[in-house]
């Protein structure tokens, strides 16, 4: 299988690196600055699952350079999505590749399906805590990594089977899920609470789990996301809702969301893609999400980085 990682940030380099390590044919679609950095420094991963380094990765910066690929791992941020869709579309039209998006959230799914056709877009999510350091190397900080994927159309069965075959050679866990949309909604519910509240508090998760009033806010966000999931045809059981709450408790007190980390660094945040996306879906279904709406309102000024005043 020949894969293209579109967006060589923390997630793309981590999973792309693991696929390379397993002997897969992998290339990276990047912008000029990142291309230079990867050519100068190579791809490096520092991880509890094992360090990895490759000094000679295949890099493309224009759609015309991309060879025949079977799978595109889409690992840009939500706020990049609209600008990359035409490029993805051009690659898919020429190569027939399937797209496995690993972005948090759900709004990208409909946009990608509209642009590429439902048969081309798999379901997927990533559970990992990773970031790029100042040299552009991946730093993976939790103990393991998990990539979940699954078919959303009968034409995707074969590519899922091909992904399953790779698993035994991978240091990361790639897990095929029959009900991938349910898993995506669980992750979306978790991240909407986790990212929104850690960013609004500007404090790590221990201040959610250790403060009953704040934990109550998290529970309300998760309940609101449950209501939304149900409107989208995914019923989250009480056990699943409790599982999402437990997920928050499983993090070390000092851990925090990537949104909070980005906010601290003055970088853009995925507020529109995550909380904004939930509100747009709520409007479509005519439901109210008052707690998410409040968090969205508090964080919106930080959307493009810390405002100067
Ligand atoms: N990091 C994590 O631990 C996790 C992240 N996620 C989700 O995964 C997604 C990606 O996150 P993450 O990897 O952290 O983000 P990063 O910011 O590290 O990476 C995104 C990459 O996309 C690249 N990109 C943007 N536009 C283009 C373009 N036009 N062409 C090529 N490359 C482009 C950026 O390149 P450039 O350098 O040029 O800006 C950047 O390297 C997000 O939705 C996030 O919420 C999910 C689970 C865990
Ligand atoms: C929770 C975490 C770190 C990993 O799944 C994540 O997705 C994020 O903070 O954006």
Automatic annotation (TrEMBL):
Superkingdom of origin organism: Bacteria
Documented EC number(s): 1.1.1.169
Residues covered by the Ketopantoate reductase N-terminal domain: 4-151
Record keywords, A-Z: NADP, Oxidoreductase, Pantothenate biosynthesis
Chemical reaction(s) catalysed: (R)-pantoate + NADP(+) = 2-dehydropantoate + NADPH + H(+)
Coiled-coil region(s): none
Domain spans labelled Ketopantoate reductase C-terminal: 179-303
InterPro entries according to UniProt: 6-PGluconate_DH-like_C_sf, 6PGD_dom2, ApbA, KPA_reductase, KPR-Related, KPR_N, NAD(P)-bd_dom_sf
Pathway(s) where this gene product acts: Cofactor biosynthesis; (R)-pantothenate biosynthesis; (R)-pantoate from 3-methyl-2-oxobutanoate: step 2/2
Record-linked Pfam families: ApbA, ApbA_C
Keyword Ribonucleoprotein annotated: no
Residue spans crossing the bilayer: none
Reported function: Catalyzes the NADPH-dependent reduction of ketopantoate into pantoic acid.
Family indicated by similarity: Belongs to the ketopantoate reductase family.
Matches recorded under NCBIfam families: apbA_panE
Protein name as it appears in the record: 2-dehydropantoate 2-reductase
Species for this entry: Ureibacillus aquaedulcis
